[in-house]
Design a protein that fits this description.
Structural class: mainly beta
CATH class of the largest domain: Mainly Beta
CATH architecture of the largest domain: Sandwich
Strand content: 25-35%
Radius of gyration: 23 Å
CATH topology of the largest domain: Jelly Rolls
Distance between the termini: 25 Å
GO molecular function, one term: hydrolase activity, hydrolyzing O-glycosyl compounds
Mean pLDDT: 90
Largest sheet: 8 strands, antiparallel
Domain Beta-galactosidase 1-like first all-beta: 120-229
Family: Belongs to the glycosyl hydrolase 35 family.
Oligomer: single chain
Strand order of the largest sheet: 22-21-24-19-5-25-20-23
Number of helices: 4
Low-confidence stretches: 363-383
Number of domains: 3
Number of strands: 25
Pfam family, one: BetaGal_ABD_1
Order of helices and strands: HEEEEHEHEEEEEEEEEEEEEHEEEEEEE
Domain Glycoside hydrolase 35 catalytic: 15-73
Length: 383
C-alpha cells in the first residue's frame, strides 16, 4: 500500500500532463468457466481481486483511501460520499453428502449421449467449448501387468479411470499413466478445459479436450465415445432426481486409486437456509481437492485450495435465497474429498482468503481419510 502511494505521488508530481492507468482499480470474479490463461499456459484463478483498491466483492480498501489521499494533492475530489461496504455473512458449516459418480451422472450431464469417433477429437469439433468433457474407450485385452496409456494432447488436465477406478492424472507435462483392467471395461478420461489463452501467439493454439491420438502400450487407441458434460444441468431439481436414482439402483459407488490419492470424480450436495435478507459470503473449500462449485443454479467457478493462491470463492448475495426457500450447494470434486464416512463439510465465511500457498509443489494431494480434522468446521483455514 505504501509503495503504491509513493509511486503514484512520484508519477503525478512528475508532470502536469501525467496520465495514470491502474490495472486493476476494481477487482472482479471469473465466475463459471470465464477465467482465461496466460501464455504459454498458466490458468488464471476464479478470483480477479488483484489486490485492487476496490476489492472483488466491491469493498473500499485501505489501498483505495491511500490512492485517494495522493490524488487529492493534485486534483479536487468529487463531493459525493464514499459508499459503505456490504455486509459479509458467516453462515457457517454446510454438510456435504456424496450424490453420484461422474459415470452415473452422465445421463444428466450428457443427456443426448456421446459422440462416436474413431479417434479422439477436440471439444470444438463437437461444438462444445467450456468446462469438462469425458472420453471413453473399452479395453479389448486383459492388462494384469500395467499398460502405459499415453498422450501429449490433453488440454488441459485429466483424470484417467478404468471401470471407475482412478489411475492417475494427465496434463501438459504428465503425459502417461499406468493402468490395468479386463476386456470390456471402460477407460474414462475426464478432461478439464482450464481456460483459454488470452493473448500472444499461442492464442491461435487454443483447442481443448484431447487434441492428439492416445496410445496404449504404443498402439493407437480407436473407437471412442465422447461425452460433453453440461454442468449447468446440475440444479436442485436434478439433485433430487440423482438422489432418488441412487437410492433405487444402489449402484453408485466411489472407488479409490491404488495410492490412495484419488477418488472417483463425483458430485456432492449440501443445503442451507438463510434467515432474513441474504448477504455476500465466501465459500471455503479447505481440505477439498479440485473441482467446480455451484450455488443453486449459479456456477461460482473453480476451486483448488491446495494449489492456491486462491482458497475461498466469492458468493454474491443475489445468487442466494432467503428462508423459507432452501439454498443448494454442489461440488463437482475431481480428486480427493475429505470424507472419511458419508459426510463432509465446507464453510461459508465472512472473510476471503486469496493468499494461500501457490505452485505445483503445494498441490494438496493428501492420502484420503487422513484429513479427519476437516470434518470439524472450526478447523477450517478461514472462519
Amino acid at each position: 500500500m505504501v509503495p503504491l502511494a509513493n509511486s503514484l505521488d512520484l508519477l503525478l508530481n512528475y508532470s502536469n500532463s501525467t496520465n495514470i492507468n491502474m490495472y486493476m482499480f476494481v477487482g472482479g470474479t471469473n465466475f463459471g468457466f470465464t477465467n482465461g490463461a496466460n501464455s504459454p499456459f498458466a490458468p488464471v484463478p476464479t478470483s480477479y481481486d488483484y489486490d485492487s483498491p476496490i476489492s472483488e466483492a466491491g469493498d473500499i480498501t485501505l489501498k483505495y483511501y491511500a490512492v485517494r489521499d495522493i490524488i487529492s494533492k493534485y486534483l479536487p475530489l468529487p463531493a459525493t460520499s464514499i459508499p459503505g461496504n456490504t455486509t459479509k455473512a458467516k453462515y457457517g458449516p454446510v454438510p456435504m453428502e456424496f450424490s453420484m459418480t461422474v459415470q452415473d451422472a452422465l445421463q444428466y450431464l450428457a443427456p443426448l449421449g456421446p459422440t462416436k469417433s474413431k479417434y479422439p477429437v477436440s471439444m470444438e469439433k463437437i461444438s462444445f467449448y467450456y468446462g469438462f468433457i469425458l472420453y471413453r474407450f473399452y479395453l479389448t485385452e486383459l492388462t494384469k501387468t500395467p499398460s502405459v496409456l499415453s498422450t501429449k494432447g490433453v488440454r488441459d488436465r485429466a483424470v484417467v479411470m478404468v471401470n471407475g477406478v482412478p489411475f492417475g492424472i494427465l496434463d501438459r507435462d504428465s503425459v502417461a499413466v499406468n493402468l490395468t483392467g479386463s476386456p470390456g471395461q471402460a477407460v474414462d478420461i475426464l478432461v478439464e478445459n482450464m481456460g483459454r489463452i488470452n493473448y500472444g501467439s499461442e492464442i491461435l493454439n487454443n483447442t481443448k479436450g484431447i487434441v492428439e491420438n492416445v496410445t496404449l502400450d504404443g498402439s493407437v487407441v480407436t473407437g471412442w465415445e465422447i461425452f460433453p458434460l453440461y454442468l449447468e444441468n446440475i440444479n436442485p431439481t436434478v439433485a433430487l432426481k440423482m438422489a432418488q436414482h441412487a437410492r433405487q439402483t444402489k449402484k453408485t459407488t466411489r472407488k479409490t486409486s491404488a495410492d490412495g490419492l484419488l477418488l472417483t470424480p463425483s458430485i456432492y450436495v449440501g443445503s442451507f437456509e438463510i434467515s432474513g435478507e441474504p448477504n455476500d459470503t465466501f465459500l471455503d473449500p479447505t481440505s477439498w481437492g479440485k473441482g467446480q462449485a455451484i450455488v443453486n443454479s449459479f456456477n461460482l467457478g473453480r476451486y483448488w485450495p491446495g494449489r492456491g493462491p486462491q482458497v475461498t470463492l466469492f458468493v454474491p448475495a443475489p445468487v442466494l435465497v432467503a428462508s423459507p426457500s432452501t439454498n443448494y450447494l454442489f461440488l463437482f470434486e475431481l480428486e480427493a474429498p475429505p470424507c472419511e464416512d458419508s459426510q463432509c463439510w465446507v464453510t461459508l465465511t465472512d472473510t476471503p482468503c486469496l493468499d494461500g500457498p501457490n505452485g505445483p509443489g503445494t498441490s494438496a494431494r493428501h492420502r484420503l481419510f487422513d484429513q479427519r480434522d476437516f470434518r470439524d468446521p472450526d478447523k477450517h483455514l478461514v472462519h
